[in-house]
Amino acid sequence: MRTESRLIRWIWWIVAVTALFFLGFIIGWFAKPTHPHTADDNVSSKYLKEFLDEMQPNQIRGHLSLILGKMCLKHQH
């Protein structure tokens, strides 16, 4: 009887987590903007392009070398 109650508890947890996932999915589906081409969309796409330009490998190496250089200088003092 003990293992049956444990199994039922696990089943209820799985059902609850799945229900919350689908509830969040449905809320997100209906909460998305109805008009994707707005002025804010142009602004956010500009920031996205700037962000993606910064994510180039040579840019990342430059930032990491700056950070590591500062850390090394900090530990030497």
End-to-end Cα distance, whole Å, is: 66 Å
| Percent of sequence in beta strands | under 5%
Question: What is the helix tally?
Answer: 3
Structural domains: how many: 2
Low-pLDDT residue spans: none
Describe the structure.
The chain is flat, with a radius of gyration of 25 Å. It is built from 3 helices and no strands. The protein folds into 2 domains: 32 residues; 40 residues. The model has no long low-confidence stretch (mean pLDDT 81). It is mainly alpha-helical and 77 residues long.
List keywords for this structure.
77 residues, mainly alpha, 3 helices, transmembrane, membrane
Summed up, what is this model?
It is built from 3 helices and no strands.
Strands, helices and their partners?
Layout: H1 2-31, H2 39-54, H3 57-76
